[in-house]
Amino acid sequence: MLPPRILRRLILAPLVLVLTVAVILTLPLWLVVITAVSLRLPPPQRRGARFLWFGVAWLVLECGVLAACLGLWVASGLGGRLRRDEFQERHYGLIRWFLGKVYGAAVVIFQLSVTVEEPVLTSDEQAARLTRPVIVLARHAGPGDSFLLVHHLLARYGRQPRIVMKAALQFDPSLDVLINRLPNAFVPRKVSESGILAEIRRLAAGMDADDALVIFPEGGNFTPRRKRAAVQRLEERGLSAEAKRADNLDHLLPPRPGGAIAAIEACPAADVIFVAHTGLDHLITIGDVWRQLPVRAQITAKWWRVPADEVPKEDRISWLYDQWEAIDEWITSTKRVGP
After folding, report:
1. Is the separation of the CB atoms in 135 and 186 below 8 Å?
2. d(CA 267, CA 269)
3. Membrane spanning segments where (predicted)?
4. What domains, with CATH codes, occur in the chain?
5. Is the pLDDT score of 44 beyond 60?
6. d(CA 53, CA 199)
Protein backbone atom coordinates (compact mmCIF):
# COMPACT_ATOMS: atom_id res chain seq x y z
CA MET A 1 0.00 0.00 0.00
CA LEU A 2 1.37 3.42 -0.96
CA PRO A 3 2.04 5.63 2.09
CA PRO A 4 0.52 9.14 2.23
CA ARG A 5 2.45 11.85 0.42
CA ILE A 6 3.70 13.53 3.61
CA LEU A 7 5.25 10.26 4.81
CA ARG A 8 6.87 9.67 1.40
CA ARG A 9 8.44 13.13 1.59
CA LEU A 10 9.63 12.78 5.19
CA ILE A 11 10.82 9.17 5.02
CA LEU A 12 11.49 7.90 1.49
CA ALA A 13 13.24 11.00 0.14
CA PRO A 14 15.79 11.25 3.01
CA LEU A 15 16.21 7.47 2.83
CA VAL A 16 17.59 7.81 -0.72
CA LEU A 17 20.30 10.17 0.52
CA VAL A 18 21.18 7.86 3.43
CA LEU A 19 21.27 4.83 1.12
CA THR A 20 23.43 6.64 -1.43
CA VAL A 21 26.00 7.66 1.18
CA ALA A 22 26.00 4.15 2.68
CA VAL A 23 26.52 2.47 -0.71
CA ILE A 24 29.36 4.84 -1.66
CA LEU A 25 31.13 4.37 1.70
CA THR A 26 30.86 0.57 1.47
CA LEU A 27 31.54 0.38 -2.27
CA PRO A 28 34.81 -1.60 -1.91
CA LEU A 29 32.96 -4.23 0.14
CA TRP A 30 30.19 -4.44 -2.45
CA LEU A 31 32.76 -4.92 -5.21
CA VAL A 32 34.36 -7.81 -3.31
CA VAL A 33 30.98 -9.47 -2.73
CA ILE A 34 29.88 -8.98 -6.35
CA THR A 35 33.16 -10.36 -7.65
CA ALA A 36 32.90 -13.43 -5.41
CA VAL A 37 29.33 -14.11 -6.55
CA SER A 38 30.19 -13.54 -10.22
CA LEU A 39 33.01 -16.08 -10.13
CA ARG A 40 30.43 -18.78 -9.40
CA LEU A 41 28.55 -17.94 -12.59
CA PRO A 42 29.40 -18.68 -16.24
CA PRO A 43 31.33 -15.80 -17.90
CA PRO A 44 28.33 -14.41 -19.86
CA GLN A 45 26.44 -13.97 -16.57
CA ARG A 46 29.16 -12.00 -14.75
CA ARG A 47 27.27 -8.76 -14.84
CA GLY A 48 27.36 -7.90 -11.16
CA ALA A 49 29.90 -5.09 -11.35
CA ARG A 50 28.03 -3.39 -14.17
CA PHE A 51 24.73 -3.52 -12.26
CA LEU A 52 26.49 -2.16 -9.17
CA TRP A 53 27.98 0.82 -11.03
CA PHE A 54 24.66 1.56 -12.69
CA GLY A 55 22.90 1.37 -9.33
CA VAL A 56 25.38 3.83 -7.82
CA ALA A 57 24.94 6.20 -10.77
CA TRP A 58 21.15 6.00 -10.42
CA LEU A 59 21.27 6.76 -6.68
CA VAL A 60 23.59 9.74 -7.16
CA LEU A 61 21.32 11.11 -9.91
CA GLU A 62 18.27 10.58 -7.68
CA CYS A 63 19.91 12.71 -5.01
CA GLY A 64 20.67 15.39 -7.59
CA VAL A 65 17.03 15.46 -8.74
CA LEU A 66 15.70 15.69 -5.18
CA ALA A 67 18.10 18.54 -4.38
CA ALA A 68 17.07 20.39 -7.54
CA CYS A 69 13.38 19.84 -6.76
CA LEU A 70 13.93 21.30 -3.29
CA GLY A 71 15.65 24.31 -4.82
CA LEU A 72 12.80 24.84 -7.30
CA TRP A 73 10.26 24.54 -4.50
CA VAL A 74 12.03 27.28 -2.53
CA ALA A 75 12.47 29.47 -5.63
CA SER A 76 8.77 29.15 -6.44
CA GLY A 77 7.78 30.69 -3.12
CA LEU A 78 7.59 27.41 -1.18
CA GLY A 79 5.57 25.81 -3.96
CA GLY A 80 3.21 28.70 -4.63
CA ARG A 81 4.29 29.22 -8.27
CA LEU A 82 5.15 25.64 -9.25
CA ARG A 83 2.28 25.48 -11.79
CA ARG A 84 3.46 28.55 -13.69
CA ASP A 85 4.93 27.99 -17.14
CA GLU A 86 8.48 28.98 -16.23
CA PHE A 87 8.64 26.45 -13.40
CA GLN A 88 6.98 23.76 -15.51
CA GLU A 89 9.70 24.35 -18.14
CA ARG A 90 12.40 24.03 -15.48
CA HIS A 91 10.96 20.73 -14.28
CA TYR A 92 10.86 19.37 -17.83
CA GLY A 93 14.47 20.50 -18.16
CA LEU A 94 15.29 18.59 -14.98
CA ILE A 95 13.69 15.44 -16.37
CA ARG A 96 15.66 15.92 -19.59
CA TRP A 97 18.89 16.24 -17.59
CA PHE A 98 18.13 13.19 -15.42
CA LEU A 99 17.14 10.90 -18.29
CA GLY A 100 20.06 12.12 -20.38
CA LYS A 101 22.49 11.18 -17.60
CA VAL A 102 20.79 7.80 -17.05
CA TYR A 103 20.94 7.14 -20.80
CA GLY A 104 24.61 8.14 -20.87
CA ALA A 105 25.37 5.81 -17.96
CA ALA A 106 23.60 2.94 -19.75
CA VAL A 107 25.61 3.62 -22.90
CA VAL A 108 28.89 3.43 -21.00
CA ILE A 109 28.09 0.63 -18.55
CA PHE A 110 25.88 -1.64 -20.69
CA GLN A 111 27.16 -0.48 -24.09
CA LEU A 112 23.57 0.45 -24.93
CA SER A 113 22.86 1.51 -28.49
CA VAL A 114 19.50 2.70 -29.80
CA THR A 115 18.78 2.88 -33.53
CA VAL A 116 15.63 4.75 -34.51
CA GLU A 117 14.10 4.33 -37.97
CA GLU A 118 12.23 7.55 -38.73
CA PRO A 119 10.02 8.56 -41.64
CA VAL A 120 11.58 10.91 -44.16
CA LEU A 121 10.06 14.38 -43.68
CA THR A 122 9.89 17.23 -46.14
CA SER A 123 11.05 20.67 -45.02
CA ASP A 124 7.42 21.75 -44.60
CA GLU A 125 6.70 18.69 -42.46
CA GLN A 126 9.77 19.41 -40.36
CA ALA A 127 8.61 22.97 -39.78
CA ALA A 128 5.08 21.85 -38.90
CA ARG A 129 6.21 19.08 -36.54
CA LEU A 130 5.80 21.11 -33.36
CA THR A 131 2.63 22.93 -34.39
CA ARG A 132 0.31 20.12 -33.26
CA PRO A 133 0.16 17.90 -30.15
CA VAL A 134 0.73 14.17 -30.58
CA ILE A 135 -0.66 11.02 -29.04
CA VAL A 136 2.07 8.37 -28.86
CA LEU A 137 0.90 4.74 -28.87
CA ALA A 138 3.88 2.54 -28.06
CA ARG A 139 4.63 -1.11 -27.63
CA HIS A 140 5.07 -2.13 -24.00
CA ALA A 141 8.08 -4.44 -23.69
CA GLY A 142 11.53 -4.70 -22.18
CA PRO A 143 13.14 -2.84 -19.27
CA GLY A 144 13.13 0.91 -19.25
CA ASP A 145 11.13 1.27 -22.47
CA SER A 146 9.11 4.16 -21.08
CA PHE A 147 12.28 5.90 -19.84
CA LEU A 148 13.92 5.62 -23.26
CA LEU A 149 10.78 6.83 -25.02
CA VAL A 150 10.39 9.85 -22.73
CA HIS A 151 14.12 10.62 -23.09
CA HIS A 152 13.85 10.70 -26.88
CA LEU A 153 10.64 12.74 -26.81
CA LEU A 154 12.34 15.37 -24.65
CA ALA A 155 15.88 15.41 -26.01
CA ARG A 156 15.44 14.49 -29.66
CA TYR A 157 11.99 15.74 -30.57
CA GLY A 158 11.46 18.68 -28.20
CA ARG A 159 8.20 17.32 -26.78
CA GLN A 160 6.79 17.61 -23.26
CA PRO A 161 5.47 14.12 -22.46
CA ARG A 162 2.40 13.32 -20.37
CA ILE A 163 2.03 9.77 -19.07
CA VAL A 164 -0.50 7.70 -17.11
CA MET A 165 1.54 5.54 -14.75
CA LYS A 166 1.02 2.99 -12.00
CA ALA A 167 0.74 4.58 -8.56
CA ALA A 168 3.40 2.19 -7.20
CA LEU A 169 6.07 4.12 -9.13
CA GLN A 170 5.70 6.83 -6.48
CA PHE A 171 7.81 4.66 -4.18
CA ASP A 172 10.70 6.15 -6.19
CA PRO A 173 11.15 9.53 -4.46
CA SER A 174 12.49 11.50 -7.42
CA LEU A 175 9.72 10.25 -9.71
CA ASP A 176 7.19 10.93 -6.98
CA VAL A 177 8.25 14.56 -6.48
CA LEU A 178 9.10 15.48 -10.06
CA ILE A 179 6.31 13.76 -11.98
CA ASN A 180 3.59 14.92 -9.58
CA ARG A 181 4.54 18.55 -10.33
CA LEU A 182 3.83 18.10 -14.05
CA PRO A 183 0.68 17.13 -15.98
CA ASN A 184 0.85 13.37 -15.51
CA ALA A 185 -1.34 10.87 -13.71
CA PHE A 186 -0.62 8.08 -11.23
CA VAL A 187 -3.43 5.53 -11.01
CA PRO A 188 -3.88 2.95 -8.22
CA ARG A 189 -3.64 -0.73 -9.09
CA LYS A 190 -7.34 -1.38 -8.46
CA VAL A 191 -8.69 1.72 -10.18
CA SER A 192 -11.60 1.14 -12.54
CA GLU A 193 -11.22 1.42 -16.30
CA SER A 194 -13.49 4.47 -16.25
CA GLY A 195 -11.10 6.13 -13.78
CA ILE A 196 -8.12 5.52 -16.07
CA LEU A 197 -10.02 6.82 -19.11
CA ALA A 198 -11.00 9.95 -17.19
CA GLU A 199 -7.32 10.68 -16.47
CA ILE A 200 -6.40 10.09 -20.12
CA ARG A 201 -9.11 12.49 -21.27
CA ARG A 202 -7.97 15.11 -18.75
CA LEU A 203 -4.36 14.95 -19.91
CA ALA A 204 -5.24 14.87 -23.61
CA ALA A 205 -7.72 17.74 -23.46
CA GLY A 206 -5.14 20.11 -22.00
CA MET A 207 -2.37 19.51 -24.55
CA ASP A 208 -0.58 22.30 -26.38
CA ALA A 209 1.33 22.13 -29.66
CA ASP A 210 4.54 20.78 -28.09
CA ASP A 211 2.91 18.21 -25.79
CA ALA A 212 2.84 14.43 -26.25
CA LEU A 213 0.51 12.02 -24.46
CA VAL A 214 2.20 8.62 -24.13
CA ILE A 215 0.01 5.50 -23.90
CA PHE A 216 0.97 1.81 -23.86
CA PRO A 217 -2.24 0.19 -25.18
CA GLU A 218 -1.24 -3.37 -24.29
CA GLY A 219 -1.29 -2.55 -20.58
CA GLY A 220 1.71 -4.77 -19.81
CA ASN A 221 4.63 -6.75 -21.20
CA PHE A 222 3.97 -9.57 -23.64
CA THR A 223 4.08 -13.16 -22.42
CA PRO A 224 2.42 -16.17 -24.05
CA ARG A 225 0.24 -16.65 -20.96
CA ARG A 226 -0.97 -13.05 -21.03
CA LYS A 227 -1.69 -13.31 -24.73
CA ARG A 228 -3.80 -16.45 -24.23
CA ALA A 229 -5.70 -14.74 -21.42
CA ALA A 230 -6.30 -11.64 -23.56
CA VAL A 231 -7.60 -13.73 -26.48
CA GLN A 232 -9.87 -15.63 -24.13
CA ARG A 233 -11.31 -12.38 -22.72
CA LEU A 234 -12.08 -11.16 -26.23
CA GLU A 235 -13.83 -14.44 -27.06
CA GLU A 236 -15.86 -14.30 -23.85
CA ARG A 237 -17.04 -10.80 -24.79
CA GLY A 238 -18.18 -12.03 -28.19
CA LEU A 239 -15.43 -10.16 -30.06
CA SER A 240 -14.51 -13.10 -32.28
CA ALA A 241 -12.93 -10.99 -35.06
CA GLU A 242 -10.65 -9.16 -32.60
CA ALA A 243 -9.84 -12.46 -30.85
CA LYS A 244 -8.74 -14.03 -34.13
CA ARG A 245 -6.54 -11.03 -35.00
CA ALA A 246 -5.06 -11.02 -31.49
CA ASP A 247 -4.28 -14.74 -31.70
CA ASN A 248 -2.26 -14.12 -34.88
CA LEU A 249 0.06 -11.64 -33.13
CA ASP A 250 3.45 -13.20 -32.41
CA HIS A 251 5.09 -10.52 -30.26
CA LEU A 252 2.33 -8.28 -28.91
CA LEU A 253 -0.70 -8.35 -26.69
CA PRO A 254 -3.84 -7.04 -28.40
CA PRO A 255 -4.33 -3.30 -27.94
CA ARG A 256 -6.88 -2.16 -25.40
CA PRO A 257 -8.59 0.50 -27.48
CA GLY A 258 -10.34 2.47 -24.73
CA GLY A 259 -7.41 4.68 -23.75
CA ALA A 260 -6.30 5.45 -27.30
CA ILE A 261 -9.81 6.29 -28.45
CA ALA A 262 -10.47 8.41 -25.36
CA ALA A 263 -7.30 10.42 -26.05
CA ILE A 264 -8.16 10.91 -29.73
CA GLU A 265 -11.67 12.05 -28.88
CA ALA A 266 -10.41 14.44 -26.18
CA CYS A 267 -7.79 15.97 -28.49
CA PRO A 268 -8.94 15.55 -32.12
CA ALA A 269 -6.28 18.02 -33.32
CA ALA A 270 -3.47 15.66 -32.29
CA ASP A 271 -1.48 13.54 -34.71
CA VAL A 272 -1.11 9.89 -33.69
CA ILE A 273 2.34 8.31 -33.59
CA PHE A 274 2.95 4.56 -33.38
CA VAL A 275 6.21 3.29 -31.89
CA ALA A 276 7.64 -0.19 -32.39
CA HIS A 277 10.83 -1.42 -30.77
CA THR A 278 12.70 -4.63 -30.13
CA GLY A 279 16.03 -5.80 -28.79
CA LEU A 280 15.53 -6.36 -25.07
CA ASP A 281 11.89 -7.41 -25.13
CA HIS A 282 12.75 -10.93 -23.91
CA LEU A 283 13.90 -9.47 -20.59
CA ILE A 284 10.70 -9.38 -18.54
CA THR A 285 11.72 -9.99 -14.92
CA ILE A 286 14.71 -8.90 -12.84
CA GLY A 287 15.93 -12.49 -13.09
CA ASP A 288 15.78 -12.32 -16.89
CA VAL A 289 17.85 -9.14 -16.85
CA TRP A 290 20.43 -10.68 -14.50
CA ARG A 291 20.77 -13.90 -16.49
CA GLN A 292 20.33 -12.77 -20.09
CA LEU A 293 21.37 -9.13 -20.50
CA PRO A 294 23.83 -9.17 -23.42
CA VAL A 295 27.27 -7.63 -23.26
CA ARG A 296 26.10 -5.06 -25.80
CA ALA A 297 22.52 -3.95 -25.27
CA GLN A 298 20.99 -3.05 -28.63
CA ILE A 299 17.52 -1.62 -29.22
CA THR A 300 16.00 -0.94 -32.62
CA ALA A 301 12.93 1.26 -32.90
CA LYS A 302 10.66 2.56 -35.62
CA TRP A 303 7.89 5.15 -35.54
CA TRP A 304 5.41 6.54 -37.98
CA ARG A 305 2.89 9.36 -37.81
CA VAL A 306 -0.78 9.48 -38.79
CA PRO A 307 -1.84 13.13 -39.24
CA ALA A 308 -4.94 14.16 -37.31
CA ASP A 309 -7.03 14.58 -40.46
CA GLU A 310 -6.17 11.01 -41.53
CA VAL A 311 -7.21 9.36 -38.25
CA PRO A 312 -10.45 7.49 -39.04
CA LYS A 313 -13.64 8.82 -37.51
CA GLU A 314 -15.23 5.37 -37.41
CA ASP A 315 -14.10 1.79 -36.83
CA ARG A 316 -11.07 2.97 -34.88
CA ILE A 317 -10.70 -0.40 -33.17
CA SER A 318 -10.04 -2.14 -36.48
CA TRP A 319 -7.63 0.67 -37.39
CA LEU A 320 -5.70 0.14 -34.14
CA TYR A 321 -5.44 -3.57 -34.87
CA ASP A 322 -4.13 -2.71 -38.35
CA GLN A 323 -1.35 -0.65 -36.77
CA TRP A 324 -0.61 -3.33 -34.18
CA GLU A 325 -0.28 -5.95 -36.91
CA ALA A 326 2.17 -3.64 -38.71
CA ILE A 327 4.23 -3.37 -35.51
CA ASP A 328 4.14 -7.16 -35.08
CA GLU A 329 5.29 -7.75 -38.66
CA TRP A 330 8.09 -5.20 -38.27
CA ILE A 331 9.34 -6.94 -35.10
CA THR A 332 9.31 -10.30 -36.89
CA SER A 333 11.33 -8.96 -39.81
CA THR A 334 13.75 -7.09 -37.54
CA LYS A 335 14.40 -10.17 -35.39
CA ARG A 336 14.98 -12.20 -38.55
CA VAL A 337 17.57 -9.73 -39.80
CA GLY A 338 19.00 -9.15 -36.28
CA PRO A 339 22.69 -8.85 -35.36
Report:
1. no
2. 5
3. 12-39, 51-74
4. 5-217+255-337 (3.40.1130)
5. no
6. 37
